[in-house]
Amino acid sequence: MSTAKLFTPFHVDRLLLANRIVIAPMCQYSAEEGRMTDWHVIHLGHLALSGAALLTIEATAVTPDGRITDGDTGLYSDDCESAMGRTLDSVRRWSDMPIAIQLAHAGRKASTKAPWKGRGQIAPDQPHGWLTEAPSPLPFASGEHPPRSLDREDMRRVRDAFADAAGRAARLDLAAVQIHAAHGYLLHQFLSPLANRRDDEYGGTLENRMRFPLEVFEATRAAFPAGRPVSVRVSGTDWAEGGWDIEQTIAFAQALEQRGCSAIHVSSGGLTPAQKVPTGPSYQVPLARAVKQAVRIPVVAVGLITEFEQAEAILGTGDADLIALARTILYDPRWPWHAAAHFGARIKAPNQYLRSQPSHVAHLFEGSGG
Ligand SMILES: Cc1cc2nc3c(=O)[nH]c(=O)nc-3n(C[C@H](O)[C@H](O)[C@H](O)COP(=O)(O)O)c2cc1C
Q1: Does ligand 1 have an atom closer than 6 angstroms to the CB of 24?
Q2: Average pLDDT for residues 207-222, to the nearest whole number?
Q3: Quick one: pLDDT at residue 370?
């Protein structure tokens, strides 16, 4: 019997997670007009067989101009909702893994090329480009077409779009919603003094900069069924002089906790090209630890977590309650199986694959994944 914490169950609100491994949201740039395609059945389908506790659907835009690229998924129309519903039906036929969704608006980082097409902004007058919007008319990188500054009416529209998308997510029976307030996208742009130069009650002091992201949280929380988690993904720091930092992140996490936030997922960076990120194994874990020490709600650590003992140590030392994997699980979609084998734990696998259990790890599989 394994004693690894990685394979102990955990509750986030009323959602029961079978272990501590969650799959982080990952954009696939493979949607059409916001609608999921067959690629999403393949991508989400294979990850849903991995034995992780939770699968998070990629950053899904709440408005068309909130998409990072024109290949992003959206949840802003009936067409988007039906396409996602079809994908979920296929995946759920063969896996009972709970599925969450990350709701997002890219703000000034919208209207870009997919990574394999060279990233970078597409100007509004170019094919597949559009005028972006942000708290202040400051472009992400110098030389880019600046965003349009959001007025109060625009902000109400964006806030309501988050709530509408959460309502659609509830109809799709998604297990949890994660609000994207990290990586330099719209809500992070409101938080960071490097992107927010507003002189109204949504800019200036920390309290003012947090105001819009907190309003979005409250509207989203109200639109999603009670007991089903609404979490927030934050950047713990901009890694840049004069920017958002861990002290402000802690204040934001506490404000979210007071408003009923279910968990905080701690990432970092993405706000400015001037960032100096000290990447390396577990490089964001100290940020998760700092948040964990300041709140009572669950905290998720992410970023270059690749090894089984490394993941176990993050949980064992109490730095975080859950670990999230992105590139690690794309590279090795059976990472949770291998981790379970390493720790002598049991894990769920689909019936069709039960015969793959290696003879030296008898009792690895629990059986039916469906
Ligand atoms: C292909 C890819 C797509 C990503 N898309 C998203 C996304 O939609 N939303 C998000 O918050 N982070 C996104 N990220 C960041 C990951 O969720 C994760 O935070 C980051 O890659 C660090 O974890 P890792 O070292 O396990 O990859 C993406 C990362 C990759 C590699």
Answers
A1: yes
A2: 98
A3: 45
Atom of ligand 1 nearest to the CA of 325: 26
Q: Would you say the CB of residue 152 lies under 6 angstroms from ligand 1?
A: no
pLDDT tens digits, one per residue of 119-142: 899 999 999 999 999 999 999 999
State the DSSP string of 180-222: EE-TTSHHHHHH-TTT----STTSSSHHHHHHHHHHHHHHHHH
pLDDT in tens, 162-208: 999 999 999 999 999 999 999 999 999 999 999 999 999 999 999 99
b (16+ CB within 10 A) / e for 50-60: bbbbbbbbbbb
The answer to whether the beta carbons of residues 333 and 47 sit under 8 Å apart is yes
DSSP characters over 62-90? SSGGG-SSTTS-B-SSHHHHHHHHHHHHH
Q: Which of 185, 202, 283, 331 is catalytic?
A: 185
- Indicate if the pLDDT at residue 156 is higher than 80: yes
Known catalytic residue at 202? no
For every residue of 260-280, DSSP letters joined together read: T---EEEE---S-TT-----S
